[in-house]
Write a structure and sequence with these properties.
561 residues, alpha/beta, TIM Barrel, 8-stranded parallel beta barrel, 3-stranded mixed β-sheet, 18 helices
Length: 561
């Protein structure tokens, strides 16, 4: 009985802590207008990033500033150089080309591709796979010219966030290669040509690319996700668990890509949502979200992966800075390198209960600050116990931080840790955890946390599923951008907003079940035609006016302060 209850507890915990990187699960419609003084922030900081004594979270200096050059045609205008865009990810959008053969369209050399197509994982209850074939994807690898043109001409976007697939560029191992020439000899010419063509199209449209180098997937020569799902102890290769090798090889990949594409890209992201690799991959996979290898309670491996992802960002940052020497936009910086992180505010279930308040602080730290303190400041907490060691080889390697935002989490406290082998700070009740709340003010709170680090921010993902086109996307656009406008006014240096997502895509273990695109994709037709949802017109109204119009403010009022 205890085992069954504990198992159910873990499933609920997984849903909660994967909430902010699995958009589209929460269909609530909670008003965003209320102020939340009980939202947990580091060291007792309030949601605006200030502590009672005037310090910023964890002692960071808030020197981020926002441009005061705005477009005056909207009551809530944004800076004239603000980036309005959408975001896509290679694995999620590339597959399913109408006319290209699968051998060109699909990338069979990634751990995720093998994970969603292998009979062993398709038949495994622990993998939680919907079973949709790769051919059901939206076919962006072939249809990108049309999609990019839609983003420019119909959405009025001036930017697009895309990702490069490590496994597509390097389908075979690079361990023996060192120089750029040696790596170039191993790189797929078709992959390089494909990415150059995408960047050329963006340039022709006058759009700024933001390129993510690792959006979850790993090459199969780095990670056998199926074998590790079946037996983590004996599988090989083990991906991030093989810390030294994976960090070394991904840094090579980053440096090569920076040199190859540096004349076409200035904005780089090293990793996307690292905790979305750790939690559903090594701790608590569930139907809400899995990630290869989808193993439960592998706490030792989870801590290794935590450390590996932190080190990988630093080494990738250094490699990109060395490889990209071309200043594309003339701002004096050839490469601006950041990391994309799923941030979420955490609320105490009862703000008068000390256990709940402490649990909210602990979860906020584990979810947000433990990783961010390491990659932004070099304060590395290997044991996830709240104590950190200064690592100069990690510090000073963050030009900007990408905020992915979807939800707020509510927690009830416990007197003892739920997962003591992972962290003594897991003092929350998984059975009562509330994982989903449409709390759009949270995007303001997270922007102010980044302000406290003293670095710029981009909203690299935020959005909601609305397959029935009920107006949720428009509401989300207006409310989140209203709160971003408020954050900029309060000193946060937020430089862009990338809605998730441009087109319906392959949502990881869910396949095509979750529809989050501003454009619907008809997966029943081989041509994969796109059709706009109502959010398209709303986003276009915002970009045309350079901000939130009076009509949109009236339609979706937000009491921003």
């Amino acid at each position: 009985m205890r085992t069954a209850l504990l198992s159910h507890s873990f499933v609920l915990f997984s849903c909660g802590l994967t909430a902010s990187f699995l958009a589209g699960c929460g269909d609530g419609d909670t008003s965003p207008n209320s102020v939340a003084p009980d939202v947990a922030t580091p060291d007792g900081a309030t949601p605006d990033g200030a502590t009672p004594d005037g310090a910023t979270p964890d002692g960071a200096t808030p020197d981020g500033t926002a441009s005061d050059t705005t477009t005056p045609s909207a009551p809530r205008p944004f800076p004239s150089d603000f980036l309005f865009g959408t975001a896509v990810a290679g694995f999620q959008v590339d597959m399913g080309c109408p006319t290209l053969p699968a051998s060109e369209c699909e990338d069979p050399n990634s751990d995720w591709y093998v994970f969603v197509t292998s009979p062993e994982t398709l038949q495994s209850a622990g993998a939680h796979l919907a079973g949709d074939p790769p051919s059901s994807g939206p076919g962006f690898w072939e249809l990108y010219p049309e999609d990019m043109t839609r983003a420019k001409e119909e959405l009025g976007n001036n930017a697009l966030r895309i990702s490069f697939e490590w496994s597509r560029i390097f389908p075979s191992a690079t361990d023996a290669a060192g120089s750029f020439a040696e790596l170039k000899a191993l790189a797929s010419p078709k992959a390089l040509a494909g990415y150059h063509a995408q960047l050329a199209k963006l340039k022709a449209l006058g759009m700024t690319p933001l390129v993510t180098l690792n959006h979850y997937t790993l090459p199969t020569w780095i990670h056998d996700g199926v074998a590790c799902h079946l037996d983590l102890a004996s599988c090989s290769p083990r991906g991030w668990v093989d810390q030294a090798r994976t960090v070394k090889e991904i840094a090579k990949y980053a440096g090569f890509v920076a040199q190859e594409f540096g004349a076409e890209v200035d904005l780089w992201a090293t990793e996307n949502e690292p905790f979305a690799v750790i939690l559903p991959g090594y701790l608590l996979p569930s139907a809400e979200r899995t990630n290869p290898p989808a193993r439960s309670l592998a706490t030792a491996e989870a801590k290794t992966v935590f450390a590996a992802l932190i080190e990988a960002h630093a080494r990738m940052y250094d490699a990109i800075k060395a490889g990209d020497t071309v200043d594309l936009d003339g701002d004096g910086e050839p490469a601006e390198v950041g990391l994309v992180y799923a941030m979420a505010p955490v609320k105490a279930m009862d703000p008068q209960n000390p256990l709940d308040v402490e649990a909210a602080k602990n979860v906020f730290y584990l979810w947000n600050m433990a990783f961010l303190n390491a990659v932004v400041k070099g304060d590395f907490d290997a044991e996830l116990d709240g104590s950190a060691v200064r690592r100069e080889d990690l510090a000073g390697r963050m030009d900007w931080l990408g905020i992915n935002f979807y939800t707020r989490i509510t927690v009830e406290g416990l007197e003892t840790a739920l997962l003591p082998d992972l962290s003594p700070l897991t003092t929350f009740n998984a059975l009562t955890l509330v994982p989903w709340e449409d709390y759009t003010r949270g995007i303001y709170e997270m922007a102010m946390i980044v302000k406290g680090f003293g670095i710029p921010a981009y909203i690299t993902e935020t959005g909601t599923a609305d397959p029935d086109d009920s107006g949720k996307q428009s509401k989300w656009l207006v409310e989140t951008l209203t709160w971003i406008h408020e954050a900029i006014g309060d000193g946060a240096d937020v430089r862009g907003y990338f809605y998730w997502t441009l087109i319906d895509n392959y949502e990881w273990n869910h396949g095509m079940e979750i529809r989050m695109g501003l454009y619907a994709v008809d997966t029943g037709s081989v041509e994969k035609p796109r059709s706009p949802r109502s959010g398209v017109a709303t986003y276009r109204e915002i970009t045309s006016a350079g901000g939130i119009t009076a009509a949109l403010m009236s339609a979706w009022p937000v009491a921003a302060e």
